[in-house]
Task: structure prediction
Amino acid sequence: MNSQLEIGTLLENYLQGLYIGDTALLRTLFHPQATLFGEIRGTPYQSMLDGWLTAIEQRQSPRELGEEFRMETLGIEVINEIAYARCRCPMLGFNYMDYLSLLRQGGRWTITNKLFTHVAEGAT
Result:
């Protein structure tokens, strides 16, 4: 399988994991020492993977709230064993733009960093 396809599959799982709130699945997609940084309507956000997964466990998922699945991958760029991806994740009253850094180690891709913000609908 080529890197674009492998990363595409990882991102499909990432978006589904966010949508259904599957923290066990999400944990398998991230490097154990992944960092998450963001800004939501002017408020800074910073967490390590465990803190972010705990927050997901403590909220209702978009699926549980009856939201339509509208998340999508907007782009993937691969250079050797590193990559980045851009995803649009509308959910829970937000329109998140996620920028994900990925690294291929031990024959598999993992997300090493998530950088995100909320933007107005249609601003992407």
